[in-house]
Amino acid sequence: MNPDRIFDAFPAPSYRGTQREALTDIRDAFADGNDVVLVRAPTGSGKSLLARAIAGCARTPDDAAPSDATGAYYTTPQVSQLDDVAEDDLLDDLKIIRGKRNYSCILPGETDTPVDRAPCAREKGYDCSVKHRCPYFSDRAIASNREIAAMTLAYFMRTAGSEVFRKRDCVVIDEAHGLAEWAEMYAAIDLNPRTVPIWDDLNVPDLESAGVDRAVEYADRLGNRCRREKDELLARQELDPHEAAERDRLQELIGELDWFVEDYRDSESATTWVVDQPDGGGSGITIKPMNPERYLSHTVWERGNKFALLSATILNKQAFCRQVGLDPANVALVDVGHTFPVENRPLYDVTRGKMTYEHRDETLPKIARTVVRVMQEHRGEKGIIHAHSYAIQERLADLLDDFGVGDRVRTHDKESRDAQLESWKATDGEEVFLSVKMEEALDLKGDLARWQVVCKAPFLNTNDSRVAHRLQEGQWAWYYRAALRTVIQACGRVVRAPDDYGATYLADQSLLQVFDRAETDTPDWFREQVERMTTPDLPEFDPRSASQSAAGAGAASRTRDRSRSRGRSGSGGGSASGGRSSGDSSSPGRSASGDSSGRKSDSSTGRKSPMADVWDDSV
């Protein structure tokens, strides 16, 4: 790697914000001999452009020996991030490769057949007459020979050990803050009727009570059983699409089970495994790794000589290195300054109590009233509400319906999330999107959203065995740091450029606890936001003035002009005051205009969720 090339490799015609300083710091960090450089770059710093510049420093074939690794990989866990790269003209020299199921077979008669179910995948010895034009194999060949190959983290990990995608000189991982969690998720083994083709023929014992040793023995036997079933399918001359899918799933399952057995029996492995089977014998099982250092070593760290990991929320270098199996002595942290005026990204304290399970019934109606007042404040402007869970989303939507403002609210379910999101983004006006798990990978620039509400502190689920295990070991700093990371990610959804503006309202009292407990891990630029947090002077509770009625619509254009003027002056959404306005204590009463028919929802699936198929790429 030649870090001195970093400025020549920068793809934009000019620098903006702190990009030049960031490139200087990154160059110096690699020049000092660090194998890994963590780049903590907030929203708007142009992480993709920085990533391209780093990748451009990779050794080329012209200055390498035949046995030397050359070129670079760019990878990210988020499919939407890869889509953004594909659409960026400044990054058109990154060749993107996706999993087989993302490409369609071009043979005559194969209508909408993904490549992983094409005749070449179903028939033994099939000689495809158009393989040289196959979109998947064509893209794979180009990417394998291009100086920079781009792919999802799932595809990158699946190709570990591949003869096609071998070790390269440099690996750049964008949105890398959740690398440990992604690896844990990817290495987890789910055994249930949906994931095990031969489930109905199995006698599944109670493995959670029996312990991990018994789970290893069972996994070993199950792996052998799966091999026999797979070999039987392989012996057939031709398979139908269902049988081909079963064969592929059996092969995946064998690999997962073998890894678990091998890793658990390796006395030098640092991985701890836990087993979840909440419904006991005969029911589904999840076998989960914790801190899968050996897994990451094989799938990531052995794939390159030098690494750059970029994110806005790598909050603690020592903790991050410990979780992913890196030696901090060989890792440098580069901080990139925030270029967005703090006045344009205000935080507002509208906390109304705790949203923990035991307090939720009392707190959520108060939050619903506050949301109505925020909707009143932001007439003419679109907003998003982060509900955290579908249970909270459903209850909050019902409360807003009861107040008569459901005509401004759009919801989604697991199947319709992307279709509803894209439909909402395409609308003008003041519709509010009541979302679940959209704190990351969402760009709501400009008028796409001028305000947002965070309903609940995004604590990890303590019923998850990995979370419970860590908390039993006293890892509370990790617990609060994980919540802070998600809050920071959420706060970046509605302010996407230096001249953009958007207000974030914090409704759960536990969010203040997160800021307090994770203060030492908070980046300076976000700490400044927290320190400037005020309580807004919202309008008195009046649902009729918040609904999308004829009377409300008349006021919308006036408040739209006022709000935009407020944004240009740098105060964000709502004026600050020393105390809360009154009017948040009553229980909801159904308005004449408020019924559930006003809420917009759609059962159409649209395209798959970018986050749902992060781990869904086949090689």
> What's the total count of β strands?
18
SS-derived structural category: alpha/beta
Note the beta-strand portion: 5-15%
Mean pLDDT: 87
Helix content: 25-40%
Low-confidence stretches: 550-582, 585-618
Short description:
The protein has 619 residues and is of the alpha/beta class. It has 21 helices and 18 strands.
Can you tell me about this structure?
By secondary structure, this protein is α/β, with parallel strands linked by helices. 38% of the residues lie in helices and 12% in strands. The chain has a 7-stranded parallel sheet with strand order 3-4-2-5-9-1-10, sandwiched between helices. A 6-stranded parallel sheet has the order 11-16-15-12-14-13, sandwiched between helices. It has a 3-stranded antiparallel sheet with strand order 6-8-7. Helix 15 (417-425) links the parallel strand 13 and strand 14 (432-435). Helix 9 runs antiparallel to helix 10 (241-265), helix 13 (360-377) crosses helix 14 (390-403) and helix 17 (476-491) packs across helix 18. The longest helix has 25 residues, at 241-265. The chain is globular and about 75 Å long. The model is unreliable at 550-582 and 585-618 (pLDDT under 50).
List keywords for this structure.
single chain; 619 residues; alpha/beta; six-stranded parallel beta sheet; 21 helices; 18 strands; disordered C terminus
